[in-house]
Amino acid sequence: MGAGRLHFLVLTAVAFLACRNDALKLEDMNTRPVRLPSGAVIRAEVMVHPEDMIRGMMYRDSLAPDRGMLFIHGEPGQYTYWMYQVKIPLDIIWLDADKRIVEMSPHTPPCTTRASKCPHYGGNAKALYVLELAAGSIDRHGLRLGSQLEF
What we know:
By secondary structure, the chain is of the alpha+beta class. It has a single domain (24-140), classed as Jelly Rolls. The chain is 18% helix and 34% strand. The chain contains 3 helices and 8 strands. The strands form 2 sheets. The protein has a 6-stranded mixed sheet. A two-stranded antiparallel ribbon has the order 4-7. Helix 2 links the parallel strand 2 (41-47) and strand 3. The radius of gyration is 18 Å and the shape is globular. Residues 4-22 have low confidence and may be disordered.
């Protein structure tokens, strides 16, 4: 197959996908659906690179109730999180390799002081994933220790 024909086929495929009603929206790029035990689905931004994980939810003014951020660590460990430069309260949820909740920090407040004075949360149980949701999500969706999520 010639390069011109291959280029045409690729452009045609991209155009077709862009026109489909169920194609991902720009704001859904780099997200993954996370199904909660309640049946609700959260679109979570996926963080795997260290620099993205460090930045996390810093400097954001809001988080919609159907959105979140999913941190995928390379291996199970006891990961602490903090709220330095985060402007909104969050629910933070630690999950093990089976995607079961092993620890939660509901209504975690922003840290408005110097970095050295910001408290750390979690890190008491081995986790592979950490999910940050809008504050109140744990209560709203009835999440409990041992609940299993799907993603």
